[in-house]
Amino acid sequence: EVQLVESGGGVIQPGGSLRLSCAASGFNFHNFAMHWVRQAPGKGLEWISLISGTGGNTFYSDSVRDRFTISRDNNKNSLYLQMSSLKTEDTAFYYCAKVGKNGDSFFEYWGQGTLVAVS
Amino acid sequence: QSALTQPRSVSGSPGQSVTISCTGTSSDVGTYNFVSWYQQRPGKAPKLIIFDVTKRPSGVPDRFSGSKSGNTASLIISGLQPDDEGDFYCCSFAGSYSWVFGTGTEVTVL
Q1: What pLDDT is stored for residue A40 in this prediction?
Q2: What's A38's DSSP letter?
Q3: What is the Cα–Cα distance from B103 to B110, expressed in whole angstroms?
Q4: How far apart are CA A111 and CA A97, in angstroms?
Q5: Cβ pair B89:A61 closer than 8 A
Q6: Which chain A residues are within 8 Å of B93, Cβ to Cβ?
Q7: Distance CA A62, CA A26 (A)
Q8: Tens digits of per-residue pLDDT, B81-100?
Q9: SS3 category, B78
Q10: pLDDT at A101 over 90
Q11: Per-residue confidence at A69, pLDDT binned at 50, 70, 90?
Q12: CA distances (Å), B108 to each of A59, B46, B92, in order?
């Protein structure tokens, strides 16, 4: 069974930094690209970042590029999101998501999310 | 990238069918057959229900179906059940390794 468990959220002041983690299990982690998607409280979903299975290719939305860094450790089956220069508008639940086994154009499995509050 | 446009809410009685539209542009929905749909219940993570416009993951009832015409994708829920309540989001690949979500639709079973 695929499981994704995020951690690392909390309350942080504007301008601060925070590192989120996502522990993956139940699949061959290194074979799959992974995403981060966020959702401000009471608002819609926003894609923010993608990393390839090897970690060699990373992509970002305009809203977080140059402030956030996605990475992974395939030996630890873990995905990370290093967030810096945080703004109040970064307040959101942050979800890690696995791409589909039949294609990487969608988000097949999601974690339960971790809340980041910038205040 | 602007969010895809969805109706704020739709409702129906048990057994009825409802359709949720998802309107994008020629840069996303209109160009790529990579539209997916997600159901999100209160306090829970989103769950994939449709991918690649029309495909259903295993375990998703065939009451859920997807289609696309031009810049608009649609999710049809037939035989509406109380358990179908929640927020539904569409999502489209938007090129250059980016994705855009819809504004979300609240489904209410009357």
Answers
A1: 97
A2: E
A3: 22
A4: 6
A5: no
A6: 105
A7: 32
A8: 999 999 999 999 999 999 99
A9: coil
A10: no
A11: very high
A12: 36, 17, 24
> Does B102 contact A44 at a Cβ distance shorter than 8 Å?
yes
- Test mutation, A3, A4, A57, A107, chain B, max B CBs within 10 A: A107
pLDDT, residue A102, reads 76
Residue B52 has pLDDT above 80, yes or no: yes
Are B46 and A47 inside 8 Å of each other by CB? no
Residue among B44, B47, B97 with most chain A CBs within 10 A, to mutate: B97
By three-state DSSP, how is residue B45 classified? coil
Beta strands of A1-119 (E only): which ranges?
A: 3-7, 10-12, 18-25, 34-39, 45-51, 58-60, 68-73, 78-83, 92-100, 103-110, 114-118
CB contact under 8 A, A47 and B91: yes
Strands B9-12 and B105-109: parallel
Helix (H/G/I), strand (E/B), else coil: A90 = helix
Listed in order, strand segments (DSSP E) in chain B are 9-12, 18-23, 35-40, 47-50, 64-69, 72-77, 86-93, 99-101, 105-109
In sign, the C-alpha dihedral spanning B73, B45, A41, B100 is negative
Q: Indicate yes or no: CB of A59 within 8 angstroms of CB of B104.
A: no
Gap from B32 CA to chain A (nearest CA, Å): 10
The residue written with tokens 């923010």 in the block is A48
Tell me if chain A has a CB within 8 Å of the CB of B42: no
